[in-house]
Design brief:
It is built from six helices and four strands, in the order H-H-E-H-H-E-H-E-H-E. The protein is an alpha+beta fold and about 180 residues long. It is globular and about 50 Å long.
């Protein structure tokens, strides 16, 4: 099996990370690979905000939990009400992926960039976890203020968030359904 296929099949969503910060060179490699993702017409209407400040990550988590509790989405409110839940899994690095709300097909572009981040991280033995619930991060006045502080460009909206760090768990692979494929020959 070639190395790329091996990395893709070995990647798992990690929810427990070691405290040690990933290196600047690892972050740069991960971001460089994100920028090499395919995107419609090479428009590059994405933005990556890298947060490694522990106080900022804790503040983001508090705002996110509060907004999830007020989201009207029962399972998110229940999740956020758990005092032991760590939304980012104590990850020392979190990347917010936002995109220009006016750009066409930008969700697909950002999904390709996110996949590059996940695969690159795994190839560097760095754990990752992609999540979309942080879309609620900016869903309040506190969140709007945070969005400005994080220097998310005007007109850009949350697409997804990726937690990164050295793995503090090694979950087994979950069963993959084969009945989701059909062939027309």
């Amino acid at each position: 099996m070639n190395e790329t296929i091996k990395v893709i099949k070995n990647r798992r969503s990690i929810r427990k990370f070691k405290e040690k910060q990933i290196t600047d060179s690892e972050v740069q490699e991960i971001l460089d690979c994100a920028l090499h993702a395919p995107n419609v017409g090479n428009q590059q209407k994405w933005h990556f905000t890298v947060i490694q400040n522990k106080d900022m990550l804790e503040r983001m988590e508090r705002i996110l939990k509060e907004n999830m509790m007020n989201s009207g989405v029962d399972f998110l409110a229940k999740l956020a009400s758990d005092p032991n839940i760590r939304i980012f899994g104590n990850a020392p690095t979190v990347i917010l992926i936002t995109a220009d709300e006016r750009a066409r097909f930008v969700q697909i572009d950002c999904a390709a960039a996110a996949q590059n981040i996940l695969v690159t991280a795994e190839s560097l033995s760095i754990g990752s976890h992609i999540m979309t619930s942080p879309e609620f991060l900016f869903a309040s006045e506190k969140g709007s203020e945070l969005k400005r502080e994080l220097e998310v460009p005007d007109g850009y909206n949350h697409i997804c968030t990726i937690a990164l760090g050295y793995k503090d768990e090694n979950p087994a692979a979950k069963q993959r359904r084969k009945d989701v494929i059909n062939y027309i020959k």
